[in-house]
Amino acid sequence: MYAILELGGRQYQVSVGQKIQVNRLQAAVENDPLPLKNVLYISGGAEVGAKALSGASVRAIVTRNFRGPKIRVYKTKRRTGFQKTRGHRQDLTELLITDIFPTAEDAEPASGDASPESASEAALDGAAAEVAATDRGSSEGEGAPAGEAPADGDAPLKDEGGE
Q1: What are the domain boundaries of the chain?
Q2: Given pLDDT bands bounded at 50, 70 and 90, which one contains residue 28?
């Protein structure tokens, strides 16, 4: 099963267990569950053409906030000697898709449910454990740890004035 959702003005095709990189979500904290409500399509669904499916949602976990690769922008004008080089790094958030709910009833656990731990919550906990394990293993080069100032290479570019 897959779903098409809109996030930050872009559309993403996602399936359970997939990791996607989206523009930085300001309210996103690592290892927190994030419900995504703006679902445009779910495979096998008959409702197509609406702005968003009513009651459908996708649950994801924020795995990390990071910066993308450095992109060099080089501008030149012929015969004038004009040359300008700029750099840019995009702020990104990585999401792990844990569940796709076609209806609102699927997203909410039943009130008379005997076991509070449903299969989706178990998958959510397993995914969070996986994220925590990968964070411990690859702490080098991913930016400054929480509470510390960023290294010089992670500082945002400053406008050099001019025009």
Answers
A1: 1-65+92-108
A2: confident
| Burial of 121 (C-beta count, 10 Å sphere; 0-12/13-18/19+) | middle
Alpha-carbon 13 to chain mean position: 13
Of 131, 137, 116, give the one whose Cα is nearest residue 29: 131
Q: What phi and psi values does residue 33 have, to the nearest 5 degrees?
A: -70, 145
Q: Read off the pLDDT of each residue in 43-71 and give the average, rounded to a whole number.
A: 83
Q: What is the pLDDT of residues 141-159, one digit of tens each?
A: 455 555 555 555 555 555 5
Which has the closest alpha carbon to 58: 38, 28, 31?
38
Paired with 76 in beta bridges are: 83
pLDDT(49) > 80: no
Number of Cβ within a 10 Å radius of residue 146: 6
Q: Report how far residue 39's alpha carbon sits from residue 3's, in angstroms, rounded to the nearest whole number.
A: 7
Residue position matching structure tokens 């910066």: 67
- The Cα 63–Cα 39 span in angstroms is 21
Closest CA to 91 of 20, 26, 148: 26
